[in-house]
Amino acid sequence: MNEEKQSFRFNLEKVRVLIFDGDAMSTDIMAQILSGFGAKNISKATSVEDAKRFLGQGRYDLVVIDPAMAGPNGYDFLPWLRRTPGDNRFAHVLVVTGHTQHARISAARDSGANLVVAKPLTPVVILDRIAWMAREKRPYVECKVYAGPDRRFKFDGPPVGSEGRRDADLPPEVGDATEPNMSQGDIDAMMAPRKVTL
Amino acid sequence: MSSLQRYFPSNQLAAALSKATPRTMRECLNQANENLRHIAAACLAHVDNGLDLLEATLASWPDSKKPEYLQDLYQLSLRLIGAGTVAGLPHVDRAARSLCDVLDGLITRDLWEKGPIEVHVASMRLLRDPAALGAGAEAIVDGLQLVRARFAVEPPPSPMKPKQA
């Protein structure tokens, strides 16, 4: 991590966190990392019942879950969270997984996770992902088959080969220009490297 | 068009972060790494316990095909991933992940083979003591990758990638 990023300010002391993992050691590893980031309000759930009880008691800003270790119903928990009325349905959800098989990543995404992180967990990766979630502006969408953050990270339009399902989807054909061409100076200004402050 | 509702809830995580007393990222990372050092011994015990369980389970290999037996081995291997790195045994983590890939492949393809599992568990036992292996640890993990390649289920190609001409 470069010097500029390391000077970025960060503290989880006001963030309410729920860690839901059936494995005590994994829970401890995550809790140690988050407490190192300043987190003081950390709830640890080892079963779906525990997790639901905690969520019923108050608002959480961040939910960290390993669905594979959260029992046989681990992957059902996220859709439940996303569809249950209340503030927690909009909570940021970080899914951690030891085994990153394709089906698991897809299942996590389609259950309503904001991000998926592969184990082994390292502080620098967790911090980077939490900071990313704090900056993200994806809308929350709800339809018959899905509830959660918009799964399109990049707004590149509908998937290749499909016509799109949303009224905001643009047709794949590029139409005529509606504005004058950009000058070379404008283009150069866009391409010029700039110092970014996070 | 399917019916879809879109919400723009306030980012509670960002709001909570903005209320906190600022600390630099460097401070956060140093403290988190320090905290992990405190639980390194517990992680090592977790790895030892996991290896013992894997070996004991493998010793009672059933006479006939039992998918749930492979699932048990998969769960045991899955529990090891992560703890190895904190305990200073990253090669054990890689071997455990490779074993998960192999077990997933066996389960998915409905195969029943002891050899690839056995070689992984025996290798993990060797990797538990990296000082004795030296550079050999990397070679062992490379060898496991060859075994993994024979049994793992590879993900389907992404539909988003354009086809090669």
Mind explaining what this structure looks like?
The complex is a heterodimer of chains A (198) and B (165). Chain A has 198 residues and is an alpha/beta fold. Helix content of chain A is 34%, strand content 16%. In chain A, the strands form two sheets. A five-stranded parallel beta sheet of chain A has the order 2-1-3-4-5, with helices on both faces. A two-stranded antiparallel ribbon of chain A has the order 6-7. In chain A, strand 3, helix 4 (74-83) and strand 4 (92-97) form a beta-alpha-beta unit. Chain B is an all-alpha fold and 165 residues long. Chain B contains nine helices and one strand, in the order E-H-H-H-H-H-H-H-H-H. Chain B is extended, with a radius of gyration of 21 Å. The model of chain B has no long low-confidence stretch (mean pLDDT 91). The chains are: A alpha/beta (198), B mainly alpha (165). Chains A and B meet through helix 2, helix 6 and strand 6 of A and strand 1, helix 1, helix 2, helix 3 and helix 5 of B.
